[in-house]
Amino acid sequence: MRVNQPGAEYGRSTQAIHAGYDRDPATGALAVPIYQTSTFVFSSVAEGAKRFAGEESGYIYSRLGNPTVHVLEQKVAALEKAEAALAFASGMAAVSAVLLGLVRTGDYILCSKGLYGCTYGLLRLLRERFGVDYSLCHMKDEQEVIHSLQPNTRIIYVETPVNPTMELVDLRMIAKVGKERGIYTVVDNTFMSPYLQRPIELGCDLVIHSATKYIGGHGDVVAGIAAGPQKLMDEIRMTTQKDMGGILAPMDAYLLIRGLKTLGVRMDRHCENAQKVAEFLCAHPKVAQVFYPGLPGFPQYELAKKQMDGFGGCLSFELKGGLDAGIRMMNRLSLCKRAVSLGDVDTLIQHPASMTHSIVPAEERRKMGITDGLIRLSVGIEDVEDLIGDLEQALTFA
């Protein structure tokens, strides 16, 4: 395939559409071909030997690289301002490959509080079975982060915004702390997408996405992405990706490539709708608090403006009536879909206390920032008046 890599002079939407691909040289096809093949034929024994020795570029076996997947990787690398990217079978495959690719027995990982549950589970596994320790930190200021470091710290791992409170981590500060001490800084950028936030531009080392969310955007594919320096990406590709095998299928890569073509218009609409929904909820008498970075009253509103190009499509709000109010409201919704995940064109809503975290004791939930009346809303791109209408009628039962 002919490769097109728009330079820095192109905007984000242009890069999302054009980076990594120009046209198919054999047919002139505008759409990226789906190379649904497991293996690739060598023209000679010598060619095969050179490819295995790394002396010649080219494809060998789709677990080691695939042309369709490579286009996706180039697009995300361009959007994240990274030297290279790797695509995985899920967001957790990306997290696992990056962490296992960077740490050694005896290392320490400092993480932001409020981690995704499966990432937290992986960290516990690393501690119990492989001798890699970790701790959680709010990361609200530089001194708090510095005081939480250990001499053997290998990684500072951050999710921002934090789910579900939307608390932000100052990425420039984290990057500074890491660089001064030779510590890798890894950021899960799923909630923002590279359209709204680019941690590498702010000085961080690596970025991870659950591409299932905003990168795909249509709720029809599960995938992950990691992006960062070429050397690190090459090491991860040839170790934890190749040997653990969490690769992305060509068809799934194609769906993500197609999703990226509309990333800009989708993210603009997600942000616009979320802002209006947040403002509506702020004025509602049954809502105690709204957590959304785009609200001037949000504690980190100024930080959000400094490191994000928009405030995102996710928000949370607290119902005054607690657990029972949350259940009643959720059961009365008709347009908003009761479902986990986020970043879909459809609006998705969940009540963690009665759904995803119902088996967790109430006190433990509260320590995680999940109160009984907390609702998390991933605002879609429907007509916002319809979304507000659905929420308004459901809130009468809260």
Automatic annotation (TrEMBL):
The keyword Lyase applies. Its cofactor is pyridoxal 5'-phosphate. PROSITE patterns: CYS_MET_METAB_PP (PS00868). Its EC number is 4.4.1.11, 4.4.1.2. It comes from the Bacteria. The modification N6-(pyridoxal phosphate)lysine is found at K213. Keywords: Lyase, Pyridoxal phosphate. It catalyses: L-methionine + H2O = methanethiol + 2-oxobutanoate + NH4(+); L-homocysteine + H2O = 2-oxobutanoate + hydrogen sulfide + NH4(+) + H(+). GO terms for biological process: transsulfuration. GO terms for molecular function: homocysteine desulfhydrase activity; methionine gamma-lyase activity; pyridoxal phosphate binding. It is an enzyme of class 4 (lyase). One of its GO terms (cellular component) is cytoplasm. The keyword Cytoplasm does not apply. InterPro entries: Cys/Met-Metab_PyrdxlP-dep_enz (IPR000277), Cys_met_metab_PP (IPR054542), L-Met_gamma_lys (IPR006237), PyrdxlP-dep_Trfase (IPR015424), PyrdxlP-dep_Trfase_major (IPR015421), PyrdxlP-dep_Trfase_small (IPR015422). CDD domains: CGS_like (cd00614). SUPFAM superfamilies: PLP-dependent transferases. Belongs to the trans-sulfuration enzymes family. L-methionine gamma-lyase subfamily. This is L-methionine gamma-lyase. It comes from Lihuaxuella thermophila.
